[in-house]
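About this split. The held-out portion is used to measure sequence recovery: a designer receives only the structure tokens and must propose an amino acid at every position. Recovery is the fraction of positions where the proposal matches the reference. Here is one held-out target exactly as it appears in the evaluation file.
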């Protein structure tokens, strides 16, 4: 089978990264406090304008893309899937990475280096347009993905009509469910879902 795995929010804990760094940054620089810690988007967490959102990621994007470790069990999942003769595709909407610019080249290089350093096994990596909601659906169709592991509701709902989806549990996707969607809290559960619940059939 072809199995797609998201990068930000699945292989990494981007919500955990933001919880560690964003409150101090926004309090010190913009005198803002957390409004709602459940959403995925910094703009919703702090009810901040685009300018402040851009300032945060200008400060932390390269740090996150370089230093943030893989989520526990990520390497082991990809090793097991490859050992079971599945093809693993990293399908990511990482910001800038799809662009044909210097920043796009840099983000693609950082992502590949990060995967190598964290010993994540995969057959191919696909960078999708972060500004197009259905871009991951198109990537799944083009690469004949049977199962996609993702955390963002917009991606999950776009992919579910054409492939099975394992929703990687987070506070911002608790309302995401339906046909072809199952939920996993960690990589052991994701692996079990693939085999114990017949997703591989």
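Reference sequence for scoring:
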């Amino acid at each position: 089978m072809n199995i797609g795995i998201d990068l930000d929010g699945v292989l990494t804990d981007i919500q955990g990264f933001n919880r560690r760094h964003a409150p101090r940054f926004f309090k010190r620089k913009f005198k803002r406090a957390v409004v709602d810690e459940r959403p995925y988007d910094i703009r919703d967490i702090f009810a901040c304008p685009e300018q402040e959102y851009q300032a945060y990621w200008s400060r932390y994007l390269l740090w996150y893309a370089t230093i943030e470790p893989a989520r526990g069990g990520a390497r082991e999942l990809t090793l097991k899937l490859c050992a079971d003769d599945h093809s693993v595709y990293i399908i990511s909407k990482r910001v800038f990475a799809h662009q044909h610019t210097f920043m796009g080249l840099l983000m693609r290089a950082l992502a590949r280096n990060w995967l190598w350093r964290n010993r994540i096994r995969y057959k191919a990596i696909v960078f999708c347009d972060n500004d197009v909601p259905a871009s991951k659906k198109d990537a799944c169709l083009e690469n004949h993905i049977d199962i996609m592991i993702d955390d963002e509701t917009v991606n999950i709902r776009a992919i579910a009509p054409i492939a099975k989806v394992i929703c990687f549990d987070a506070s911002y996707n608790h309302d995401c469910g339906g046909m072809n969607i199952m939920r996993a809290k960690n990589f052991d559960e994701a692996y079990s879902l693939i085999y114990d619940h017949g997703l591989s059939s």
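Annotator remark: The first strand starts at residue 2 and ends at 5.
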